[in-house]
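input
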Amino acid sequence: MNNQVVIGIDLGTTYSCAAIVERGRPRVISDTGGSYLIPSVVAMDGKGNRLVGQAAKRQILTNPKNSIFASKRLIGRPFFSDEVKRIKHYVKYQILPADEQEEVVVKLHDEVYSLSEVSALLLDYIRNVSQDRIGKEISKAVVTVPAYFNDSQRQAVRTAGEIAKLDIIRIINEPTAAALAYGFGKGLNQKIAIYDLGGGTFDISILELRNNVFEVKATGGNTCLGGVDFDNGLASWVFEHFLKDTGVDLSKDPISHQRVQDACEQAKIELSSRPSARINIPFITAGPNGPLNIDYTIQREEFEDLIKTLVDSTLSTCDKVLDDAK
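output
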């Protein structure tokens, strides 16, 4: 492995992916299982083994207290920020203040990790998988981040690269990267809007393309708004119905909570192409008369009502950014 290449990494909230350029064309790297999406999850199993990616994601359901996901929402944020308080409501792993009270750290078993260290584990895993797939050494990377990441968050990503011994030669805003993929080399002369609603973050950017020069006219977004919030809204709907029907509050139990979360994510996906989705979870918990099951059907219109406030907030941001770009 004597030919070094620069890798492009989309370090996402829920999934990450990597690509290289071969013969002038991008090639997305698959993992050993053939998937192009790597879960952005770091976990530790009962034997103390550290896991990353698909293996870590499988731990979320059975070992939620030692499975770190959505860490991108925490990176570079102070512990007492409103964003961190919101995140603590739906994750089951421990989020703690660092000694100086300004940073967030997370706990896996008895080990404490900074968010840069968690991201470094993801970067190192992505780099190793990519090296194995392409047979070349990788020591440099370009990493994308949400357009609304502040200096502290961007520095935390750079620190993650340093920990992983991966030289991050450039950090690019995610919407700008999408615009480059869309228009680079085409000689376009136009204005475009990039609406990027990911698993955990939302960005909107207006760019002007002129002869392969890309000028960002305006940008906006929310680093704590994404698909996981749609899942949370649907999960709250399930918890409320189940509490009303049975008197049992499933939201307090980590494993039951995660089972509902997973089922709601799948229902959300189904509602993209179907008018309704069934949320069926057998033996979710035990009641005084035996096992209790979840079996609800939600219509797409009901789901749209649940997420309306979230969707409307993205549209309000779009309006502001469009005004700023004039």
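quick obs: DSSP finds eight helices and 17 strands in the chain.
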